[in-house]
Amino acid sequence: MNRNEILQYRKMLDAKHAELIATQHRPEGLSIERVADAMDEIVFANERDLLVENLNRQADLLSQVAQAFERTENGSYGECVECGGLISPKRLNAVPWAALCLGCQEMADHHGRPEGSRSLLHAA
After folding, report:
1. How many domains does the chain have?
2. How far from the centroid of its chain's Cα atoms is residue 64's Cα?
3. Separation of alpha carbons 46 and 40, rounded Å
4. Nearest-5° angle of CA 47, CA 51, CA 54?
5. What's residue 124's pLDDT?
C-alpha cells in the first residue's frame, strides 16, 4: 500500500473518530431512579441497559479505530492481524478500521469473536 492510499485511509479514520467523539453518549442516563410504578422501573432499567450497551459498542469501535491508526503508523495497515493476508481495498473502503480479511472475519463471526481478537481461528 502506498503512502497516498495510507493517507486517504487515515482521513477516513479521522472522520470516523471525530464522528464517534461528537456523538459519544454521556453517562448521565445511567442513574438509578426509584419510581412508584413497577412498570416504569422496568422501562428505566431497559433504557439504562440499552445506554450501557451503546456505550460499550462505541468504546469498542473507538478502540478499533485507534488500533487502525497504530497499524498505519507501524506499516501493517491493510494486513489481516490473524492470517497476515491482505485486506481488500473494497473492504477497507467500507470499514477502514477493519483488522481482519473477509475470510478471517467470517470465521470470527461464525465463532462469535469480535473483530481484532487475536487467535480467532485457533481458539475455537
Report:
1. 1
2. 5
3. 10
4. 140
5. 37
CATH code of residue 48: 1.20.120.910
Q: What pLDDT sits at residue 1?
A: 85
Amino acid at 88: S
Q: Are 113 and 120 in contact (CB under 8 A)?
A: yes
Residue (of 14, 9, 8, 24) closest to 95 by Cα position: 9
The rounded distance, in Å, linking the Cα atoms of 85 and 105 is 12
Does any domain span residue 61? Answer: yes
**Is the residue at 116 inside a domain?**
no
Residues of the chain with pLDDT under 70: 25-35, 113-124
pLDDT at 123: 40
> Which pLDDT score, from 0 to 100, does residue 121 have?
45
Q: Which of 109, 97, 76, 81 is nearest to 1 (CA)?
A: 76
Domain residues for 40? 3-110
Tell me the residue length of the chain.
Answer: 124
Residue 94 falls within a domain, yes or no?
yes
Residue 47 CA to residue 29 CA, distance in Å, equals: 8
Is the pTM value of this prediction over 0.85?
no
In a domain, 119, yes or no: no
